[in-house]
Amino acid sequence: MKQAAYGLVLYIFLMLPPVTALAESIMAIHMHMQMPLFVIAGMLMTPFFQKKFPNLFSKWNSNGIPGIILFMIIVLYWMLPRTMDEALTIPAVEIFKFVSLPFLAGVPLRDSWKKLETRVKNIIYISLSAIFGFMAWLYIASPNQLCNNYLIVEQKTLGWGFVFLAACIFIYFIQTLFIDETEYE
Amino acid sequence: MEALKNTILEKTNKSLGVNAEDARLTLTYLSLAFIVLFIGGALGLLQGLNRAGLLELPVWLNYYQILTAHGVLLVLVFTTLFMIGYFYASLSHTLGGLLPKVRKMGWVAFGLLVTGVVFVVTTIIMGEASVMYTFYPPMQASPWFYIGLVFLVAGLWVSGIGVFINAASWKKRNRGKHLPLLSYFAVGAFVLTLLGSLGVTAEVLMLIPWAFGWTETINVMLSRTLFWSFGHTIVNVWYLVAVSAWYVTVPKIIGGRLFSDTLARLVVILSVVLNVPGGFHHQIIDPGFTQGLKFMHVFMSLSIALPSLMTAFFMFAVFERAGRKKGAKGLLGWFKKLPWNDVRFLAPMIAMIAFIPAGAGGIAQTNNQLNQVVHNSLWVVGHFHLTLGTTVVLTFFGVMYWLIPYLTKREMTTKINRLGIIQTIVWAVGMLFMSGAMHWVGVLGSPRRTSYTTYGDNATALGWDPYLFFLAIGGSLLFLGVILMVYIVFNLMFFAPKGNTAFPIAEPEDNASVTPRWTERWGLWVIVAIAVISMGYVIPLVDLILNAPPGSPPFKTW
Predict the structure, then answer these.
(1) Domains of chain B, residue spans
(2) Which residues of B touch A18 (CB under 8 A)?
(3) What is the interface pTM, i.e. ipTM, of the complex?
(4) Cβ contact (<8 Å) for A165 and B531?
(5) Inter-chain CB proximity B523 and A25 less than 8 Å
């Protein structure tokens, strides 16, 4: 339960106005630091919800598939350039960001991950690195400004951030194929 | 069959003590390390005397040549040689001998390092590479200086890969067991070295064609940023090497136990994951970065203080428990029960005490405003003589008193112990004078990286003189310390009486909790480290490359 408390503290910290203002002032930090931290805050708070609503999770997320699909939908939604713009200009969308990333992406991700089969996990690794790779190409190669609120150079920076993220996920996936943890157990 | 053979080898090794071939490898590294320390120390003395205005250096060996050689030899070469020698001995002891292939890699790495040192030192002596150990462009050294650096980095890589191979092979032979803590430190330190060296490798590969004249200009800010992703990390690698001795050997020497295996491993993981972006605070007054970015980086830099504070907590817990076991009473009674007259404890203990002001000074420098006050002053030099020159180096010295007798099957005599205590005190007092004076005169404005000058008898500059005398006195004491230490090392190596010295490895507490499995998941931690590095560096690097100025032609300022 300590974890849940830490998650809550992180969650509140991230929503403090000076913190959001600073995090959202740089495009790459907005998408690659603030948003993942919201997901992490949600993951930390997951044990609290699992304890409070055990039936909800066992009934609706017995094999982890619904949860991971929900996670993917939320993540994909927040990757669209337009949603970032709207989060900055429309308060309701900003609130939706604060709610959706921790509770509709972080919580289902942690609840689902242990329940998933290796095959499904591999699909997630591959699709996430492929999507991130595509986003990298989009943000680096686009000659136009994709977000009204951020300059083209920031857009390119974000694209390079995506290159690294895609590489991280892909390298991790590859090492799971080659390094069999059970060999060391 | 192979596994059986290895198990038998391992058992024989444990009962017979050190493997002679492994010992020869480590002793070769350590001998060269202390020869390098002697040369580097002598250069340091010359510098200190020059800085105080007491010694005029000849034209053919000027202050900046000596400064560059002193920095490269002590910050890069001495420490690297010590680290590889010490960790290879640790692997040999805790994993039951080095694999023949790994031992060979150790020798190859040694060859690469020596080649690198020859290139670097020759160009410095020829007066073609007075660029200091940070080799900032647009100052341009001879291309062979940079090629020497490539050899040095290649030596680090080969030795690191050797460590990984040995550790992985042990894990396969010992399923379900955790890698022994000291080897775990070795793996962590080399993972960090490899991650940290990526940036500097990219930098040097840009500098070489520029130094040959194949490219006309160089991106100065990009080079500095790539350098510090390495420079800061490598200092923390040396610190991690020293810390490994604190965690694993010091508790045994004081008759205590390992306080928490999990905490020690967590410190290694955090050091690896958080370290590389910390380098940015060395550039806190560089132009070309926005204030917001610098502010973000303050957090990344300060996060490194977290594992250091955990270490402080761990060590105090070990001391208190060991003291209470020996019957200490009251809040601080354990303090008196520590073996102050044992140099194997005294040297690392003073190293740890020095890290209290050293770490605090580091935290101060990480802050933008405070950094502005001291950035290009001698304060910074004082700071890294405390962290590296005291905390790290005194721990390395402390290790020598048991590692060399262990490797040579000899024993430390009470005479050497006494001499060691004198050496430690001389070093501590010398550093107190030198580093203390550097800190103080730095705040008064005396610049770093500058040979002695009174700026045309300017009153302010003349006001620095008394402090610079203290600097010279400290420097002289430190050179005395170097002479004593080199004598001790070679005495222990060749003249100490034959006998048996144990490799001190602390046992866990009787009621120790089980170390969780996640500590062994290096695949995950390396990925997290890469993610954190990209969080720290993607924004500034893309900006520096896409919005690059025209670039700078080379300058030879000496």
Answers:
(1) 2-506+534-546
(2) none
(3) 0.85
(4) yes
(5) no
